[in-house]
Amino acid sequence: MEVFIKEKIRVVSLFEAGKIKPLLFSWRKRLYKIIEVAFSYSKNLGQEKVFYFSVQTAGGNFEISFNREKFSWEMERSL
Amino acid sequence: MQTILHLDMDSFFASVEQQASPALVGKPVGVIKGPGRTCLIAASREAKKLGIKTGTTTYEAKAIYPKIILVPADFDKYFSVTKKFIEICSRYSPDLEVFSIDELFLDITRTQDLFGGPGEVCQKIKRAIKSEIGRYITCSVGISYNRLLAKLASGIKKPDGVFEITLANRDEVLFSCELTDVCGLGERLKKKLFNLGITNFKSLREVPLGCLEASLGPYWPKELKKLSFGEDDSLLTRIGETPAMKSVSRTYTLYENTTDGEKIKATLRNLCEEAVFKAREMGMAGRIVGLGVRGSGRGVRGEKREARGDYRHKALKHYLDSGKEVFEIVWRLFKEMDWEGGVRFLGIWLGDLRPKDELTLSLLGEEKKEKDLIKAMDAVNKRFGELTLYPAVMLGRSLLKSEVNGFLGDKSFRFSPV
């Protein structure tokens, strides 16, 4: 079941060839290795561009987001 | 002869939701416009197999499959996928027409040989969609020598299929399909043709033109004859060549009938702000203001009716691009309707749009003040997000923000370079 979370997280990611690839993240003192990015999309919130990633980890599936202007990552929800 | 592809994403909204949420994969899913809405705007492949389709009510869907998962639509998400889809297809030809949020035409006449022919182009696009958007997202492709037949072909092998209509199989395909399978022929025309005893494209082709003209007037018979031969001489409209919009509009269906005047006022103001902002963003102003209302109550002549609608407009001598001015006219039109009973649906439009740089500038100081205020509000809203600043009449109301619709009716705005 979907649970909305909206919390700041720390993410290790690869920025390459104009693309962002999250690799692992820490949330609530646990480290999650991303097995697969199943889907990604972006939205404009005013002039801010936010990239959303549906990620699969051994600890569950999540949607995380990266705000390009604030340069920050958030845990959006568990899927 | 041209080679046109029509690419149509399969169960688009539902597939995107399934791709985004693994818990939805393989399950019957219905997409609704928002929480509390009662009509499915899309159904997943699994739901379709059970007989649940677009347009099915949530009540009907639950009667068929009580465990159906209902997901509120996220049009920004779908439009983001549309943009990726367009980018992938544009690698194979610059001659591309976006037809709706999940369909496009690609003219590969001059580029197909670079990529190994039409079949190979289709497979390359399908593979790119799977690897770059998601493995659950598929598209069906129609190949033919014009738009009409390419679109018809894409519907023949669904989902994830490829079908080609050539001169050799054209008649076989046309004669085996329903009249309404062809784009441009709707239910009303079908009914008229049925009344004339024409039930398929074979009989449509055989009936003399004069017989059709006697019943359908001068325009449609010639068009119908062309359709019966699968003829279509229309050209693709590339993104940058989309004709300028003639009007901007916004409609909204309330969750329940309301007689609350303040709510109606706030909603109308909200709709005006949104539609007129679009016109301003495109550098346009309009001079025809329209209002549509549907609901229950008394008819125009006072008779009691369960449901009714009223549409009015006002043509002005000057051009407007201010939400406030448009709203003042809309509100006057609503008052003139003297609506009794509940309101369920509201729609406004600003028509006869013209580029503002073709219009005479106002020299009045007051108008300049108003325009500066609008300019400042637009700058704030563009920087911090839609409706960060909004008119006080909307205070305390749930704000309606702009959304992409499935038909992409505002594509000249969405893809506007402004």
Q: Indicate the CATH topology of the largest domain in chain B.
A: Dna Ligase, domain 1
Q: What structural category characterises the helix and strand content of chain B?
A: alpha+beta
Share of β-strand residues of chain B: 15-25%
**CATH architecture level-2 label of the largest domain in chain B:** 2-Layer Sandwich
Our count of helices of chain B gives: 15
**Count of β-strands of chain B:** 13
The string of secondary-structure elements of chain A, in order, is EEEEEE
Report the sheet with the most strands of chain B, covering strand number, pairing sense and barrel closure. 5 strands, mixed
Which range does the strand content of chain A fall in? over 45%
| Contiguous uncertain segments of 5+ residues of chain A | none
Strand order of the largest sheet of chain A: 1-2-3-4-5-6
Kindly, what is the distance between the CA atoms of the first and last residues of chain A, rounded to a whole number of angstroms?
6 Å
Percent of residues in helices of chain A: under 10%
Q: With helices defined by DSSP (H or I, 4 residues minimum), what is the helix count of chain A?
A: 0
Class from helix and strand fractions of chain A: mainly beta
Q: What is the topology?
A:
The complex is a heterodimer of chains A (79) and B (418).
Chain A: E1 3-16, E2 19-27, E3 30-45, E4 48-57, E5 60-67, E6 72-78
Chain B: E1 4-9, H1 12-20, E2 29-32, E3 40-43, H2 45-49, H3 58-64, E4 69-72, H4 75-90, E5 96-100, E6 103-107, H5 118-132, E7 139-144, H6 147-154, E8 162-164, H7 170-176, H8 187-195, H9 201-206, H10 209-216, H11 220-228, E9 248-258, H12 261-281, E10 284-298, E11 304-320, H13 323-337, E12 343-351, E13 354-355, H14 365-384, H15 411-414
Parallel strand pairs in B: 2-4, 7-8
Antiparallel strand pairs in B: 1-6, 1-7, 2-3, 5-6, 9-12, 10-11, 10-12, 10-13
Helix pairs in contact in B: 4-5, 10-11, 12-13
